[in-house]
Design brief:
The complex is a heterodimer of chains A (74) and B (209).
Chain A (H helix, E strand, L loop, with lengths): L1 H16 L33 H13 L11
Chain B lengths: L3 E5 L9 H10 L9 E5 L8 E5 L8 H5 L5 E3 L5 E3 L9 H5 L35 H7 L11 H5 L5 E5 H15 L9 H5 L3 H7 L5
Antiparallel strand pairs in B: 1-6, 2-3, 4-5
The chains are: A mainly alpha (74), B alpha+beta (209).
Protein name (chain B): 4Fe-4S dicluster domain-containing protein
Organism (chain B): Denitromonas halophila
InterPro entries (chain B): 4Fe4S_Fe-S-bd, 4Fe4S_Fe_S_CS, ET_IronSulfur_Cluster-Binding
Chain lengths: 74, 209
């Protein structure tokens, strides 16, 4: 009888152990870049660190993509 | 300066694939890798056919960056999403995460195993010395460091594909929309950018059916 009680108690303990509440949501941590550092485009030999010049060149180049305004309105 | 962006005007794209060819040639992209491609919907349906050139969109909140288990992605100050190929393990998570199908994997092994990820760099190279052979070998040309815009956009014959500073592109696109007769909410809506534009208006006027 005692053996039966022990088995039942252990069985109940094991069954109830499965009912514990485990958090289901993982907390993700934002990773940080693990690769090699890169230089910025204005640090190239062409611009030698002149960010303002690079930016103005890029803006001018972008504006060349539109044909509007190239010809006077006829 | 704002962020570097691509914008494809579907009212202008004629599916010539010039952007695809320009990209392949400029960076000597190997067989099987498509850094850029042209997608056409309603192909052959008169008046409803729309083509759009698609590549990495250099997302502000890039899903590829979020899922990469080895954190090889970085975003430059001008908003270009790049990655370090030396640290890439070719797992392919970024491919599943990207809504544009931008990440590409070379089939280098005998059994088609995935190589290191390759994608559009906005012609900004990668984390190697600017203009070096190593940079060209791994990432292609670094046109941004030379003060040039991406080759695909600069080569576009109809100027459907625009690339560069987001503010400048928005100005160009706004001018186009105004010329097309857009105003108010139409100036910024989805329909203006990707549909219900000139072709639709032609239809409404009783033009080509």
């Amino acid at each position: 009888m005692n053996t039966m009680k022990t088995v039942l108690l252990i069985g109940a303990a094991m069954a109830l152990a499965a009912c514990s509440e485990v958090p289901q949501v993982t907390n993700y941590k934002a990773g940080s870049y693990s690769g090699k550092p890169d230089t910025r485009p204005w640090e190239s030999a062409t611009y030698g660190g002149d960010k303002a010049l690079w930016e103005s060149d890029m803006r001018a180049r972008a504006r060349k993509q539109t044909e509007i305004g190239r010809m006077p309105p006829g | 300066m704002a962020r570097m962006k691509f914008l494809c005007d579907t009212e202008r794209c004629i599916e010539c694939n010039g952007c695809v060819t320009a990209c392949k040639n400029e960076h000597e992209v190997p067989w099987g890798i498509q850094r850029r491609r042209v997608v056409t919907i309603n192909d052959g349906v008169v008046g409803q056919e729309k083509s759009m050139s698609v590549a990495c969109m250099h997302c502000s909140d890039a899903p590829c960056m979020a899922v990469c288990p080895v954190d090889v992605f970085y975003r430059t100050e001008d908003g270009v999403v790049l990655h370090d190929k030396d640290a890439c393990i070719g797992c392919g998570y970024c491919f599943y995460a990207c809504p544009f199908g931008a990440p590409q994997f070379p089939q280098t092994g005998t059994f088609g195993q995935r190589g290191k990820m390759d994608k559009c760099t906005f012609c900004a190279g990668g984390p190697e010395a600017d203009g070096s052979d190593a940079e060209f070998e791994k990432y292609g040309k670094n046109r941004l460091a030379e003060g040039k815009l991406p080759m695909c956009a600069e080569m576009c014959s109809t100027k459907a594909l625009l690339g560069g500073d987001g503010t400048a592109l928005a100005d160009i696109f706004r001018e186009r929309v105004v010329r097309r007769g857009g105003s108010g909410a139409e100036m910024i809506g989805w329909n203006t950018a990707y549909g219900a534009g000139e072709q639709k208006r032609e239809q409404n006027r009783g033009g080509d059916k």
